[in-house]
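Cont'd.
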Amino acid sequence: MKTDYVIQAENLTKLFGDFAAVNRISFHVKAGEIFGFLGANGAGKTTAMKMLIGISTPSSGRATVAGFDVYKETEAIKKNIGYMSQKFALYDDLTVKENISFYGGIYGLSKKAVKEKSHKLIEELNLQAVSNSLVGGLPLGWKQKLAFSVALLHDPKIVFLDEPTGGVDPITRRQFWEMIYKAAHKGTTIFVTTHYMDEAEYCDRVSIMVNGKIEALDTPKRLKAHYKTDTMNEVFLKLARG
Amino acid sequence: MKKFIGFVKKEFFHIYRDKRSLFILFGMPIAQILLFGFAITNEINHVDIAILDQSNDVTTKEIINNIAASKHFNIVDVLQDETAIETVFKKGKIKAVLQFENMFAKNITKEAQANVQILTDATDPNMANTISNYITSILKKQQQDINNGAFTPYQIIPQSRMVYNAELKSVYMFVPGVMTVILMLVSAMMTSISITREKEQGTMEILLVSPLKPYQVIAGKVFPYIFLSVINAMAIVLLSIFVFKVPVNGSLFFLALESVLFIITSLVLGILISTIAATQQTAMMISLMGLMLPTILLSGFIFPISSMPLPLQAISNIIPAKWFIVIVKGIMLKGIGLGFLLKETLILLAMTLIYLGISVKKYKIRLE
């Protein structure tokens, strides 16, 4: 296995009884890449992602994340990744600042580092006016950006985003993708699952999962050429319908 | 350790900002102990009664004076004939009527026997029973006074004495019970709700993906409630000592140790519930139906276990509260130590370990 890949999976499999939720998937993700992980509901995206972020043990196959083994070195993996779920899991009854310092704290950042980072982050997101307000009262788009920034707080090598744009309007989604580009530009690898096929176009490479298997993996441009369509939507429908 | 402190701080923010949990944590214990101590009581005080004295002689006067002098009864009405009895009962204010037969004093001296009737309003059967017992005891005392000096052969007078709670104060009964219920409520229900809230919000997932280990997450969630439960237990004991004058005959330190054990038992139950329940609502329902109801009904707090049907008696054995109430009563009222309470303590300890084992197993399964 080459070392400039930050995620490597070989025949990674997860069985629930006889059912293979994830069936021998193999793929590599390069450092600094925006990797789109697509698939219909129930295709096995979330299960695959859970194995990579160290909260579910694979049934068989091999995988490393940030150079650490998903069987034995989950603690090291957790220190090196950021994670944001579709629920933008922030604490509604804590203020913006408190949320930042809480998440900074559990990743072991020093008080000083937390202070500096939260100051910078609040400035970047233009949240000065609400930095001492409870997160529960913020608009969804703000929460989403805050959640993403919090996931990046400890400068992880890889950020896993599980359907990060669910339920927000197109303008906010657009702004959110700009943040993703910015992070990728700084060298952070982005591993993102999404339902929105227009978002798939923003990715450097995408994989499409159908029934636990990766059926296609390439750049959006080449996938469209291969399936002779103009949109990723068509590519997805062709694959998903078999 | 630094991570842990940050985590605990966050938990206190949650508790402090949620008015409902603040109320449950601090309002409930005080309200409950005061309610049970003052309002809900088995004792009777200042009950209104009426007298129908058809004899009107020295002896009946003396008896009536004795009753009027006791703090249990207020004589508010003196009736003239039997037809009035029904009327006063119907008005509802008067709970009992004491009716002396004609020539009461004369009958005692001549026939060595006189009749007095106690009529009680049994729409509240417990109360009627208690009133009747109180009046009977006053009459018995009178009888002894009359007999004193007179020749009365072969009289057996049973003397019962209530030990540990000589005045039969119901607050002695309720303090251990309320303490148990409160600790169960705060520890089990509040923790299970606060853990399932993290699941519901999706923050639990984030915590599990963070470098925090699962046991650190749970310990961080549970710790504030240990602290608050200890404060609650202290408040209840202080209230009962200073407001209700319940004695603590045994060692306060031992009481504190046993309370911490029971708090941990309840916390573990709370964790167990949170591994089963997916939402806060479910967690609350399971805590209320599965823990609070048995704790109140089957622990011997309100209803004596010995008078329950056998199957319920068997079930009561698996309720931690039953054993804790025995322990608290033992320490507070009887003043006994570990020597006499070893069995109960070990049972609680064993229960805690068993529940902990199940929770750890369940928690792992859920992570998969």
